[in-house]
Amino acid sequence: MSNAAEPVVLVASSEFILKSSPVRRTLEQRLIDDLKFAIRRESLDCSRIEKEAARLVVFGTKQNDLAATVCQHVFGVAYAAPALLLTKPTLDEIAQTILQLAKQQLSPGKSFAVRAHRSTSGSIARHDVELEGGSVVLRAFKEQGMHVDLHDPDFTFYVHMVGDDAYVYCRKLIGPGGLPLSAQWKMLAVLDSGPLSILAALAMMRRGCVVELMIPTSPAIADLSSEPQLALARRAGRLVTRPSYKGFVMEMEKQPRGGDAGNVNWRDFVRASAAKFALDNRFKGLIFGDISGDLSTFRTYPGPSPLPIFYPLLGMEEEDLTELLSLAELDDRQPLSKWGSSGRSSLTQSQIKSLVEETSVPLVREIQF
């Protein structure tokens, strides 16, 4: 081919189209900043990130496939695709690039389809790209049982055309979607429900919130063992595209006591302490990992000023939780059944109010991820 293809990463944003133009520009710049940081953190670098029609294009990465995988995990990304950019190609050059990818991906007997999309007007028609690209691949593999399947192909080759340029790719790495971090308020997620707390934090991150973690630990409470708690927190930390991401370790030496009531439910004590800490440190809300229950009976934690409480997992279907598990790279479903059914509080609203008022927050130390 006379037109050398340039490896790039094509990034599709999520939900931005629903925003006004000023808000959309702000979100796009935040997403660009997050992508740059995520790429630099993996020592991949990039020369620049530019907006092309409705997509962002990452130029100059040294390892294209790895860079796409990094971009895939950034909040606000619908999908990332390692692509080949053709500048002002002919129809035959586009078809030959599709064939180049087909030789890398297709195996005997597999089906394929060619899908072309045009964002802005240009000299090459979308239908011509699909017809010529499919024909070239069929001719090259006619002895190997390849066939076109437009409904459920084994492989799909995509061509995204912007003006007279074309981006050719065959893999879409699905991202978390949602909004870039810091598009909304700063929240405090309480790590008192094992993996469910991490899933709740990620659900709010996907809505654009910067979520920091309150990490209770105690040698006397099995569910708050230090190493497992910190290991879970680090999973969330890996998904935050910020140069400095911090959490707060709350060190509890023993089972808390509640005056004449004797030992109190440790989860109530943790949440009351977290509420006080959040208010003192100007967080905009608390996040809990409950997945079941009657919302009208859930407790709030009153203090000197209103503090919203969020239960983002409440009412989620199994596939939604599975999606969040995949995002957090938590594949074991067993912990969810354990944490989803344990630790229910039996305190009344007035008892919780008294607990909040009487609670002295244990030692809290800041850590960096």
Account of the protein in words:
With 369 residues, the protein is an alpha/beta fold. It folds into two domains: 6-174, VC0802-like; 186-368, Rossmann fold (3-Layer(aba) Sandwich), CATH 3.40.50.620. Helix content is 34%, strand content 22%. The protein contains ten helices and 15 strands. It has helices spanning 21-41, 64-72, 91-105, 126-140, 195-205, 226-237, 266-280, 318-328, 334-340, 349-358, and strands at residues 6-13, 48-52, 55-59, 77-86, 111-118, 147-148, 155-162, 165-169, 173-174, 186-190, 210-217, 246-251, 286-287, 309-310, 363-368. The strands form two sheets. Strands 1, 2, 3, 4, 5, 6, 7, 8 and 9 form a nine-stranded mixed beta sheet that branches. A six-stranded mixed beta sheet has the order 14-13-10-11-12-15, sandwiched between helices. Helix 3 (91-105) packs across helix 4, helix 5 packs parallel to helix 6 and helix 5 (195-205) crosses helix 8. The radius of gyration is 25 Å and the shape is elongated. The relative contact order is 0.12. The model has no long low-confidence stretch (mean pLDDT 84).
